[in-house]
Amino acid sequence: MHWASVLLVASLCRVSMSQYEDYEDMFWLQAYLRSQSSSYNYSPYYGDEVPAYSYIPAESPDGEPVPEPPVSRECPHECECPPNFSSALYCDTRNLKYIPFVPSRMKYAYFQNNQITTIQEGAFDNATSLEWIALHGNQITSEKMGKRVFAKLKNLERLYLDHNNLTKMPTPLPRSLRELHLGYNQISRVPSNALEGLENLTALYLGHNQILEIGSNLRGLKSLIVVDLSYNQLRRVPDGLPSSLEQLYLDHNQIYSVSEDFFKASPRLHYVRMSHNSLTNDGLASNAFNTSSLLELDLSYNRLQKIPKVSTSLENFYLQGNRINGAQKSE
Question: Hey, is 35 helix, strand or coil?
Fold first, then answer.
């Protein structure tokens, strides 16, 4: 089992890293992953490929630090704007209760691990070139978030709002968005228009919420590769999964059935995790998981009494914690 896990991690890393094709994106992904306090076991980690950020103030000839320049609109006094990373604003882990002024040149803004409760309307209107906004690990509520606070950010690609107190999906979101992180909140529903127009979205993280149903709201996400809906209260698999989907995480829900056409809409689906649900053989269509595209299937800790039919191309199959007493022939 150990060698299978190693192979699985390597495969997942290859799939996830394919989302970051240019050097600048990869660099900032590495910087972000080092700064975050929480981790996702399905996300890649890149070790020490790039030296960690370290800003050392300039010194005068006699070795004394040069006095800091007066506070200006070039950099808010609450944050750091390192001269060697002129498009990055570091405001993380500073006990901030508000979002400071964001200079217009910024592309990457880090506000994680503070005590921010409010995102005021117009908070980013001066910095419409932002590509990354990291707001995870705060105390932001849906009631205190501007209704169109992200709408003007036409270049925004990655938005991190995990580990907050959100009860609603933030809308509207810009069409440029590629990753949306909303895990570890209190979201209970995904409105039909919440993801409308996000045709460039490749990764959607909604794990550890209170979502009861998502319906067919993923259908229009034509670029979607990864969906995490684990640790929610879903009773059924989402309808109309996009054809681009490769990784689907539905573990720790209350799903009890899977239909015959589960894979027909998503022929590229390689990794499916549905452990810790309420699946029974009566609730599974006979060929629900019998598809040649599937490489990993996790059905552990359900209520299965027989092994479901699967394709011989399947590489990793997890069934521990069930009530297996017989087998159906695999094809």
Answer: helix
DSSP conformation class of 312: T
Nearest to 300 by CA among 253, 241, 251, 265: 251
Radius of gyration of the chain measured on its C-alpha atoms: 22
Residue 159, class by beta-carbon neighbours within 10 Å (0-12 exposed, 13-18 middle, 19+ buried)?
Answer: buried
SS3 63: coil
Please state, in angstroms and rounded to a whole number, the distance separating the CA atoms of residues 30 and 62.
Answer: 36
| pLDDT tens, position by position, 36-66 | 433 333 333 222 222 233 333 434 445 444 4
Per residue, the 3-state secondary structure of 222-290, as one string, reads: CCCCEEECCCCCCCCCCCCCCCCCCEEECCCCCCCCECCCCCCCCCCCCEEECCCCCCCHHHECCCCCC
Rounded to two decimals, the pTM is: 0.79
Contact between 124 and 150 (Cβ < 8 Å): yes
